[in-house]
Design goal:
The complex is a heterotrimer of chains A (300), B (523) and C (335). In chain B, 29% of the residues lie in helices and 22% in strands. With 523 residues, chain B is α+β, with helices and mostly antiparallel strands. By secondary structure, chain C is mainly alpha-helical. The chains are: A mainly alpha (300), B alpha+beta (523), C mainly alpha (335).
């Protein structure tokens, strides 16, 4: 496709950002929505990390007698149809969902970055090949391809992640390639080349660090996205398998109970929404911070 | 590009809002008296009776066809249908049927012995799953047209349940007239997958895939005219929505609701829930090729570790009875005295020690997570076995993958359902324990025992009912002693309907296939 | 232009070739055996072997691929294992429902999204802007399946205002099939009862689908509007004393629409995958509903057919959008 993310000028590099830590703090205060996003991400992440400490029960412990109990002091979010404590399942679910989101975004970004760097720097046949492969993957609506992949590989959380990484990397490859193309023509890279710097050195010392900020922004936004798509897959039955406390899977299990036991599918869905919103708000702010000109790739 | 301004967008919004207003007296909307609206949470895939082996498809087509024999009312007794009478040779190998005369198929083709021959030849030639019941028993050479109204089947070996097997959907008599739709030698498979061609009380009038199936009363029907003009089977995948439509009276009858939902609507005015014992067995396969499960003591230990009432209560809300051996209660041949396992953790641990595994070990449990009940059973079994030191890893796979793994013995334990196709304990013995049936064919534990092989084959060929009963007793004893499977429970079959629906008769052999031809509606 | 078109089309075919191989590989890494499904639960080994042979599954993979491509060139996508019918027939039958759903939603996205984006830009950093931002962000953050469940619960189960499943009420006869789009068919047949029923059935799924697809459009309109509004000619127009409404809609919006066009094109992709969940939740018998069923069943001819067709639709829409650029913006030339 014609639109290739070519930035007119290289984005600001990371060290500049790091130095301006205090500035960031002040900037955050002026953008309440970004702050909210950051707080949500922080809370959900710590809940996920400290799940064994925070969860009042074992998320897999079955108690047939105490099935479908309404909200109470003992079970703030009630219990599910096998008497498992929903609060505990949702807290452990944070761990599962975040793990999934971060893994997909990180692996996708890594693969995409490397291939995009190669394509952009080496150009010629390599570039052509990598970009055509990208086009191929981008020719599908992501969810449909992911479903087909996850269904074939066998439904499991691992395979969902694999499928999503396979689908996700081309976006990063494109961003990276665009960055590299823009940077390659910039003066300091030219200067480095004139001074006799090797290809490898150029790629890893000069191009990579400067091209990375937009990747980070994209990855942050993608964590939210990945959580959303992975939970959709689980809901449709192509993702996490019982009794794994994945939010999409819990919603799916609770689906038929909504009418008489409203809390069962409501809380896990709420958890997904809040978490994803947190990442989106934070990513939005991060984008403005790192590069106000960077436009998000849309349409996945 | 035309851009709408706010006022226009607003106007559009108002139009939408108007359409959205509640239907006048929407809830009182009653369905026509001569039309039954049946809500189904599962979709039909294909309608060819000689291809499909799916109860949901059978529901749509069973009453568009007739068979040589039928099950009498709600019983498992065989009665005449298209055959008026029959004789069986003393060696149990030759069956001769005298056929009803003057019957016509829905397409006008006359019904006669040739049609029966055509039907069974097509079934056997295609050799799809539906033909599996008669594997090794009947082939095309065994079908003889004696005269226009007499047909003879010659079996390769005596087969005690043969008559019963002729009442199954697979044995439906299909019109030879369908051959005019044959394409490229497909025996009209492409056509019959989306149409019906039988002599039954209904025929398929319309099928909008994913939406609805319309069965229309067959004007040429030879038997008693059904009260219903139409049966409309609506596809409503979400049981929560189906339940609501039932409560509002927009749907007359439907399945499958969850037990929770059935409990919630039971007793509400205008709703009746029919509940009857069934032969639907739920059990666990224990792969005998596994190094741990090959030991009978380990299998017994597992049988002692399971909390049967807990599963029945948690998964079926009490709407099931624990199985006692492989043959379900209510089926001829069931032995009331055979041993029944119950949870005994100490005993299980001791058996594991005797088997040389006091430290326990790990096993996988294969399920199709699309079946909610299995996912729940797996979660409970996982917890139960953890108590005796066996770590269970639940593995979910899509149906075809699960089947492939079952067939190749590529699993440790797995969940399973089994419904008998014909009303005979053969379905729970020969299929389950005969060593040559290893895999999908029925022996899903890959159990192999020469003594058992002898017994299951002998009962099949035994024509003396008393001797057969004795054989079944021996089979059940071994099956339980050796703990070949974990015999969990047999479900209570529940189907909800509006109270104005009359004449429903439950037949345990026809699960999910209500007798549309006998049903009527009160005004 | 012609040169560009030829190059684009050629590229498209290269990509389709890759897509074909890719879908084939995906559907054939299956550890399951489709023959076993067809054979049913109690089939013997011989039956299974025969079915496997009938389906061509015993041939080596490259041969199977070759056969598939050969048949594809003849317009045959194979026979579905699940429905036993030609896949192309299944897809054609399910397509209109999806088309109706997606197109209606796209209209709503345009009708609501563009004014919202404009409003947001004109009243930047004021309440309308914040509001539209919250609507947009919540739209992309909501799990579609969950919102769908809640909508059904509130509007169907609790309030009883709107139907929650399918395309028509239980007792309503569908209009005779002309296009497969029930709204059109009902109009053509002057069947007002069916029309009313089908429009009511469209409301919830269309609301759901357009809501979650709204965000990119709003965002894009807003940012390009902001860019345009800051430019000289707008300031000139203002200085001339033209009414603000005229400036916004006549001058600014027209120029801001160019990038928005891309977004609308891409939205079709978003809508297509939003439809997967929407159709599942509302039992909307479209392509996506068929897709989910086929995938759970690992019905690989159907899975291949669906992925191929959706890739073709998706890339074609993008191609059309690329071409439309030239129409909307005469500055863009293809070379």
């Amino acid at each position: 496709m014609t639109e290739v993310a070519t930035q007119a000028r290289p984005a600001r590099s990371l060290p500049t950002v790091r130095r301006s830590g205090r500035l960031v703090g002040r900037w955050l205060l002026r953008r309440p929505l970004t702050l909210v996003g950051a707080v949500i991400v922080l809370v959900v992440s710590s809940a996920g990390l400290a799940a064994p400490l925070l969860a009042p029960y074992n998320p897999l412990a079955i108690d047939i007698v105490g099935r479908l109990q309404p909200l109470s002091r003992a079970h703030p979010f009630g219990t599910d149809h096998l008497g498992r404590d929903l609060l505990s399942r949702i807290i452990y679910g944070a761990r599962v969902s975040l793990g999934v989101g971060v893994t997909i975004a990180a692996l996708g970004a890594l693969t995409g970055t490397v291939l995009g760097l190669l394509a952009g720097y080496l150009g010629g046949k390599v570039d052509e090949t990598i970009m055509r492969i990208c086009d191929m993957f981008l020719a599908f609506p992501a969810l449909i391809l992911a479903m087909a992949l996850a269904a074939s590989l066998g439904p499991s959380l691992g395979n969902t992640m694999l499928a999503l990484v396979i689908i996700w990397w081309p976006w990063y490859a494109r961003i990276m390639r665009g960055q590299v193309l823009a940077l390659r023509e910039s003066e300091y890279v030219m200067a480095a080349r004139a001074l006799g710097a090797s290809t490898q050195r150029l790629m890893f010392r000069h191009l990579l660090p400067n091209a990375i900020p937009p990747i980070i922004v994209q990855a942050t936004l993608d964590i939210g996205n990945a959580i959303l798509i992975a939970s959709s897959l689980s809901f449709l039955g192509f993702g996490a398998q019982p009794p794994v406390p994945e939010w999409g899977a819990i919603t799916s299990e609770g689906r038929t109970f909504l009418r008489d036991y409203w809390w069962y599918p409501t809380f896990p869905g709420l958890a997904i929404m809040i978490t994803v919103m947190g990442f989106n708000l934070m990513g939005d702010g991060l984008r403005d911070l790192l590069d106000p000109r960077l436009r998000r790739q849309v349409g996945r | 590009m035309k851009v709408f301004g706010w006022p226009r967008a607003l106007a559009l919004g108002v139009v939408f809002a108007l359409l959205a207003l509640p239907m006048p007296a929407g809830s009182a909307q009653a369905t026509p008296q001569d039309v039954l609206i049946f809500g189904s949470t599962s979709d039909v895939e294909t309608m060819d009776p000689q291809v499909t082996v799916d109860n949901i498809a059978w529901r749509a087509i069973y009453y568009s066809y007739d068979r040589l024999v039928q099950l009498k009312g709600g019983t498992t007794e065989v009665a005449p249908q298209l055959a008026e009478s029959w004789t069986i040779s003393p060696d149990g190998k030759t069956y001769t049927f005298r056929l009803r005369r003057g019957v016509k198929f829905v397409d006008g083709t006359p019904f006669d012995a040739k049609a029966v021959e055509f039907s069974f030849t097509r079934l056997l030639k295609m050799g799809k799953g539906a033909a599996g019941l008669w594997d090794g028993i009947l082939d095309v050479n065994g079908i003889t047209v004696v005269n226009a109204s007499t047909i003879r089947f010659t079996l390769k070996t005596p087969f005690a349940p043969f008559l019963g097997s002729l009442a199954t959907d697979q044995a439906s008599i299909v019109s030879p007239g369908i051959m005019k739709y044959e394409k490229g030698g497909d025996l009209a498979q492409a056509w019959l997958a989306g149409n019906t061609g039988g002599t039954g009380p209904f025929f398929l009038k319309e099928w909008r895939r994913g939406e609805r199936i319309v069965l229309e009363r067959n004007p040429n029907y030879w038997g008693r005219r059904p009260a219903l003009r139409q049966v409309i089977i609506r596809n409503i995948p979400d049981p929560a929505v189906l339940r609501d439509l039932l409560e509002r009276g927009e749907v007359d009858m439907g399945e499958a609701l969850t037990d929770d939902q059935l409990d919630a609507i039971k007793g509400k005015p205008g709703i009746t829930v029919s509940e009857s014992p069934s032969f639907l067995a739920t059990y666990l396969y224990l792969n005998n090729k596994n190094r741990y499960l090959s030991n009978a003591k380990v299998r017994q230990a597992i049988s002692y570790a399971i909390d049967y009432p807990g599963i029945i209560r948690g998964v079926k809300l009490g709407r099931a009875v624990q199985m006692r051996g492989p043959i379900p209660q209510g089926m001829a041949g069931h032995d009331k005295t055979v041993y029944q396992y119950s949870r005994d953790v100490a005993r299980a641990r001791q058996l594991l020690s005797e088997a040389g595994h006091p430290q326990g070990f790990e096993l996988s449990l294969l399920i199709d997570p699309g079946i909610r009940e299995w996912a729940d059973i797996a979660s409970i079994v996982q917890a139960n076995l953890a108590d005796v030191g066996i770590k269970v890893k639940i593995e979910g796979f899509a149906r075809p993958t699960m089947r492939a793994k079952l067939d190749k013995a590529d699993f440790d334990m797995a969940t399973g359902f089994w419904t008998p196709d014909y009303p005979d304990a053969d379905m729970f013995t020969w299929f389950w324990f005969y060593s040559k049936n290893g895999g999908l064919a029925g022996n899903r534990s890959f159990y192999s025992n020469p003594r058992m092989d002898e017994l299951v084959v002998a009962q099949r060929q035994e024509t003396d009912p008393a001797k057969r009963l004795a054989l079944f007793r021996q089979i059940q004893k071994i099956a339980v002693d050796e703990a070949v499977y974990v015999y969990l429970h047999q479900a209570v079959y529940r189907i909800p309907m509006r109270s104005r629906v009359q004449g429903y008769v439950y037949n345990p052999m026809l699960l999910f296939m209500p007798n549309f031809s006998g049903i009527s509606k009160k005004p | 232009m012609a040169h560009f078109l030829a190059r684009r089309l050629l590229l498209q075919f290269v990509v389709f070739g890759g897509v074909l191989v890719l879908t084939f590989l995906i559907s054939h890494i299956v550890p399951g055996d489709p023959a076993l499904l067809r054979a049913g639960p109690k089939a013997s080994a011989e039956t299974i072997a025969k079915i496997r042979h009938d389906m061509g599954l015993d041939r080596p993979l490259p041969v199977q691929l070759w056969v598939y491509v050969r048949e594809l060139l003849r317009g045959d996508l194979g026979t579905s294992i699940r429905t036993q019918r030609p896949v192309i027939q299944d897809i054609t039958e399910h397509f209109p429902a999806t088309f109706e759903l997606i197109t209606t939603s796209l209209l709503v996205v345009i009708v609501v999204g563009i004014p919202l984006g404009v409003l947001s830009a004109v009243r930047k950093d004021r309440l309308p802007d914040h509001l539209s931002r919250v609507i947009a962000i919540s739209g992309v953050s909501l799990p579609v399946f969950w919102l769908g469940l809640l909508l059904i619960y509130v509007f169907f189960v609790r309030l009883g205002w709107l139907p929650g499943t399918g395309r028509l009420d239980m007792a309503v006869e569908p209009p005779p099939t002309l296009t497969g789009l029930y709204v059109v068919d009902a109009l053509a047949a002057r069947d007002w009862e069916a029309l009313r029923s089908t429009v009511r059935h469209l409301l919830l799924p269309v609301f759901l689908l357009s809501y979650v697809s709204l965000a990119p459009v709003v965002r894009m309109v807003r940012s390009s509007m902001l860019e345009v509004l800051g430019q000289d000619y707008i300031r000139t127009a203002r200085a001339k004393g033209l009414p603000e409404r005229l400036i916004v809609y006549r001058h600014a919006l027209r120029n801001a629409l160019i990038p928005t066009l891309t977004i609308i094109g891409l939205s079709y992709g978003t809508l297509l995958q939003g439809a997967v969940v929407t159709e599942t939740i509302f039992a909307w018998p479209g392509m996506a509903y068929y897709a989910v069923g086929s995938m759970t069943y690992l019905d690989y001819p159907a899975v291949m057919g669906i992925t191929l067709v959706s890739a073709v639709i998706y890339t074609s829409v993008n191609l059309i959008v690329d071409l439309l650029y030239g129409v909307v913006d005469p500055r863009i030339r293809y070379d």
